[in-house]
């Protein structure tokens, strides 16, 4: 049944379509969260596990949270005022902003390269980019193109975690 339902088309077309939502409680969102936990991801910019950030009983207090990559004020300056457009699932990332580093209105191209260089070790960048589904050069993309590409990357992360569960192999 898995092979007939979870085809390449499911992962490459259907799953990205399911990720085109602003719903705060959607199965596709929870699938991505579960994938991040299963793949042992840290939040962006801090050595805090996503699983700990999600678990209120972990005892770990952290400033890590889900937040926008394209900031609200920046999107508004581009004429994107719809809450449902701003709050697309693909615009969120688990992140702990460094002290004084939380952008307010800057475009991703303004804030992201500096934070990436300062807070993501070079030897971890490929893994962090994969787990957080950040397409190469995403910060230079127009918002709609970013959303479309990131949904495909998120679907790949979910598929990787699913394959790990299905086969028992390390990701």
Tags for this model:
9 helices; 5% strand; mainly alpha; 171 residues
Could you characterize what this model shows?
The chain is mainly alpha-helical. The protein has one domain. Helix content is 50%, strand content 5%. It has 9 helices and 2 strands. The chain has helices at 2-5, 8-18, 27-38, 50-54, 72-77, 83-86, 108-119, 125-131, 143-167, and strands at 65-68, 92-95. Strands 1-2 form a two-stranded antiparallel sheet. Helix 2 (8-18) crosses helix 9 and helix 3 (27-38) packs across helix 9. The longest helix has 25 residues, at 143-167. The two termini are 23 Å apart. The model has no long low-confidence stretch (mean pLDDT 92).
Please give the share of residues in helix. Answer: 40-55%
Helix and strand sequence: HHHHEHHEHHH
Number of domains: 1
Strand order of the largest sheet: 1-2
The end-to-end distance, rounded to whole angstroms, is 23 Å
Number of helices: 9
Return residue spans where pLDDT drops below 50 for at least 5 consecutive residues: none
The total strand number stands at 2
Tell me the major beta sheet.
2 strands, antiparallel
Class inferred from helices and paired strands: mainly alpha
Strand content: under 5%
Mean pLDDT: 92
Instruction: Give the radius of gyration.
Output: 16 Å
- Name the overall outline: globular
């Amino acid at each position: 049944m898995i092979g007939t339902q979870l085809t390449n088309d499911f992962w490459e077309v259907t799953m990205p379509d399911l990720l085109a939502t602003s719903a705060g409680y959607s199965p596709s969102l929870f699938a991505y969260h579960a994938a991040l936990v299963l793949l042992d991801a840290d939040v962006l910019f801090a050595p805090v596990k996503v699983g700990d950030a999600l678990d209120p009983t972990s005892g770990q207090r952290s400033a890590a949270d889900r937040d926008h990559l394209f900031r609200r004020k920046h999107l508004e300056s581009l004429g994107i005022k719809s809450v449902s457009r701003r709050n697309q699932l693909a615009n969120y990332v688990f992140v702990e902003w460094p002290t004084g580093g939380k952008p307010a209105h800057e475009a991703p191209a303004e804030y992201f390269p500096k934070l990436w260089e300062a807070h993501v070790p070079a030897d971890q960048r490929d893994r962090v980019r994969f787990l957080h589904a950040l397409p190469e050069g995403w910060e230079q993309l127009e918002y709609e193109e970013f959303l479309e590409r990131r949904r495909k990357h998120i679907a790949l992360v979910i598929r990787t975690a699913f394959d790990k569960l299905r086969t028992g192999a390390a990701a």
